[in-house]
Specification:
It contains five helices and four strands, in the order E-H-H-E-H-E-E-H-H. The protein is mainly alpha-helical. The strands form two sheets. A two-stranded parallel ribbon has the order 1-2. A two-stranded antiparallel ribbon has the order 3-4. It is flat. It starts with a strand and ends in a 22-residue tail after the last helix. The relative contact order is 0.17.
């Protein structure tokens, strides 16, 4: 089981042009800057804490899990929440894919570290009930899919 923590939106995200390598500074910014009403961005750290506490309780009951700390990664990249060239200022979602790629790299690391020889053999021997050939021809046109 994998859990990714969630980072808040960054108020006034378009004003950031580089990473801020200081989580405390960014948490203060999120808590004190003009925050869109009702979104509760300043509560995300607490909501993550609740989830992590519940996971710890479940771990005592035998749940096995890994944490992907999206909060720590994302809150330090306020510059990735806005596309100033294209005038898009969402301020909650990451506009550029590099931060999501960091999450994926961590996720793939955990998968690879935990896989067993049995897992590898199971994937290698799995038979799909459909053709796994590409559905795109060399000229880029779609091929009719016939399972």
């Amino acid at each position: 089981f994998f859990w990714r923590t969630t980072a808040p939106g960054i108020p006034d995200c378009a004003s950031f042009t580089e990473p801020v390598n200081n989580i405390t500074k960014m948490e203060i910014h999120v808590a004190t800057a003009a925050n869109p009403a009702g979104w509760g961005w300043d509560k995300f750290w607490y909501q993550n804490d609740i989830a992590l506490h519940m996971l710890d309780l479940a771990k005592a009951e035998g749940l096995s899990y890994e944490i992907i700390d999206g909060y720590e990664i994302d809150i330090q990249r306020p510059d990735r929440h806005a596309c100033t060239k294209c005038k898009r200022y969402d301020c909650l979602h990451q506009y550029y894919p590099d931060v999501a790629n960091a999450h994926n790299i961590i996720f793939l690391h955990y998968l690879r570290a935990r896989r067993t020889a049995k897992d590898i053999a199971r994937v290698a021997n799995y038979r799909y009930n459909f053709s796994r050939v590409t559905n795109v021809q060399p000229d880029g046109m779609a091929v009719a899919f016939d399972p």
